[in-house]
Amino acid sequence: MNKLELNLSLLLDSFISRIPTLLLALATLLIGFWLIKFLIRFLNNHLNKGKIDISLSNFLISILKVILYILLLVTVASTLGIETTSFVAILGAAGLAVGLALQGSLSNFAGGVLILLFKPFKVGHYISSSNNVEGTVLKIDILYTTLKAKNGTTLYAPNGPLANAVINNVSDNENRMLEYSIGISYNANIDTARKVILGVLTNDPLIFKDPAPVVLVASLGDNAVNLTIRSWSANASFWPAYHRNFQLIKEALDQNNIGIPYPQREIHIIPAGKGLPG
């Protein structure tokens, strides 16, 4: 037997001896693929029936799928006798490097998870936040929230800062309070002014009768008696009722000769050569 035949014989013997290991690795791979598909299908059906947002559930399932496939490949490699310690160490180092490089994005991801889980606002809600984000929510993604501002521009707010801000959700309640601050002249009768203003509000079908509108004296200013006016309407009717009643209140006060003063200054001109009056 020459050298070539000897090498071929050794190679064949080695292959035959490894057939059980190869079959075990192949079986592990096929069963692993089937189990991962079954688990992903089960989670999809379960999460779609729950209250978890579809964007969050799809993202979490995608992450889980990647992790499971990596674990399956490491397991198959280990079954074949391939050293996986270095491979795992490389994956860990790569994960750490990516984590440091994407620190801001990971913060936005965590914020997106919190927003989608706890739902401080939903698509269609009008919100404002303590970090100067304001508008109607168009879309909530895992990293950014898209809003339409009052002036029609589109805002893309990172979810990290948004999740940590104080959120004022204007659309979360069905009803909303309208509040005005109007000053009347010191010569005007407060009770008369109150009746005039309440007459305007009670005649508006958009203003609730319960709770009833109120007119309160807020302060005695330098130039006017400042009144605070409060009433309630449906959230959807807030702005039409607010602007219309502002105008109607002004017109009703004018018709009843109740003035709304403005700051005035008196100037005394002292002739030359005369001192200040004693």
From TrEMBL:
It is found in: Cell membrane. GO terms for molecular function: mechanosensitive monoatomic ion channel activity. The chain crosses the membrane at residues 20-40, 60-82, 88-118. Signal peptide: none annotated. Its main location: membrane. It is a multi-pass membrane protein. Residues 105-171 form the Mechanosensitive ion channel MscS domain. Residues 179-260 form the Mechanosensitive ion channel MscS C-terminal domain. It comes from the Bacteria. Residues 63-103 form the Mechanosensitive ion channel transmembrane helices 2/3 domain. Belongs to the MscS (TC 1.A.23) family. This is Small conductance mechanosensitive channel. It comes from Pedobacter cryoconitis.
